[in-house]
Amino acid sequence: MKRDAVTGGGCLVSAAGVVGSVWLWGASDRTQRHLGNKFENNGQDLGAVLTELPFVFLAGAVVPAAVWGLGVWLLGRRRGRSESSRASEFHA
What we know:
Layout: H1 3-27, H2 29-34, H3 47-91
Helix pairs in contact: 1-3
């Protein structure tokens, strides 16, 4: 796999993670309660948005990118091992 393809894939996975995590966070019952999904906005707490949303955004960006990078690294190690074993067979 080429380096540009790996980088592009990691960025795409990270962007999808951000969108998915923010959407799931916003759709949860807990978040809806804090955002005033009650009668006449009773119980509205915008502090939850200010404290939780940055963490949701960062986790959605970092976790998928880290898993992607780990997968690419493991595949690269596996591919490197198989190529080195083939090379040693031909040179023996």
